[in-house]
């Protein structure tokens, strides 16, 4: 169990590192939005800048999901778990992670990887004039769900360790 807890701590650090970088993507997206809005006043807007904005916002959303889960800032249905004992809450968390989060994440990984790979191998570019390559935006989907999967596994390990501790 100690090795799994060490691995869980590494996953936590990975998601924390991503989470600390992502606010900068929002700042960059806001600055791009302002710059693009000003440029359009002078008929100098750019489709590439518009696409870069949504790439940055997508990165913040997708790559930050694991950190949100780690910090327990996600949507929860405490109405059901509030009545449970601490041990019951641990079991409910493990069940919820194993039966909802992990299957959805694994399905999204399975579906999004070929989508990214196809885009990357074909050098797919946005249909907009002056648009950006699409693969950087598409890799965000499997990367984000991979981080979320890892964090869900780390939480399951932690909850299982807490259950074992409660039994001892």
From TrEMBL:
<feature type="transmembrane region" description="Helical">
    <location>
        <begin position="135"/>
        <end position="157"/>
    </location>
</feature>
<keyword id="KW-1003">Cell membrane</keyword>
<dbReference type="GO" id="GO:0022857">
    <property type="term" value="F:transmembrane transporter activity"/>
</dbReference>
<feature type="domain" description="Tripartite ATP-independent periplasmic transporters DctQ component">
    <location>
        <begin position="31"/>
        <end position="160"/>
    </location>
</feature>
<keyword id="KW-0997">Cell inner membrane</keyword>
<comment type="similarity">
    <text>Belongs to the TRAP transporter small permease family.</text>
</comment>
<dbReference type="InterPro" id="IPR007387">
    <property type="entry name" value="TRAP_DctQ"/>
</dbReference>
<dbReference type="GO" id="GO:0005886">
    <property type="term" value="C:plasma membrane"/>
</dbReference>
<protein>
    <recommendedName>
        <fullName>TRAP transporter small permease protein</fullName>
    </recommendedName>
</protein>
<feature type="transmembrane region" description="Helical">
    <location>
        <begin position="52"/>
        <end position="69"/>
    </location>
</feature>
<keyword id="KW-0812">Transmembrane</keyword>
<dbReference type="InterPro" id="IPR055348">
    <property type="entry name" value="DctQ"/>
</dbReference>
<dbReference type="Pfam" id="PF04290">
    <property type="entry name" value="DctQ"/>
</dbReference>
<feature type="transmembrane region" description="Helical">
    <location>
        <begin position="90"/>
        <end position="115"/>
    </location>
</feature>
<comment type="function">
    <text>Part of the tripartite ATP-independent periplasmic (TRAP) transport system.</text>
</comment>
<keyword id="KW-0813">Transport</keyword>
<keyword id="KW-0472">Membrane</keyword>
<keyword id="KW-1133">Transmembrane helix</keyword>
<comment type="subunit">
    <text>The complex comprises the extracytoplasmic solute receptor protein and the two transmembrane proteins.</text>
</comment>
């Amino acid at each position: 169990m100690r090795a799994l807890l060490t691995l869980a701590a590494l996953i936590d650090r990975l998601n924390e590192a991503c989470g600390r970088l992502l606010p900068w993507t929002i700042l960059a997206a806001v600055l791009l939005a302002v710059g693009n809005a000003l440029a359009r006043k002078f008929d100098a807007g750019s489709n590439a800048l518009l696409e870069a904005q949504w790439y940055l916002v997508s990165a913040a959303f997708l790559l930050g999901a694991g950190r949100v889960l780690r910090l327990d800032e996600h949507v929860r249905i405490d109405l059901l778990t509030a009545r449970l004992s601490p041990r019951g809450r641990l079991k409910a968390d493990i069940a919820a992670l194993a039966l909802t989060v992990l299957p959805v994440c694994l399905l999204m990984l399975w579906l999004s990887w070929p989508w990214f790979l196809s885009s990357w191998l074909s050098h797919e570019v946005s249909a907009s004039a002056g648009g950006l390559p699409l693969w950087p935006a598409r890799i965000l989907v499997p990367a984000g769900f991979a981080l979320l999967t890892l964090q869900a596994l780390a939480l399951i390990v932690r909850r299982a360790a807490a259950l074992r501790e409660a039994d001892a």
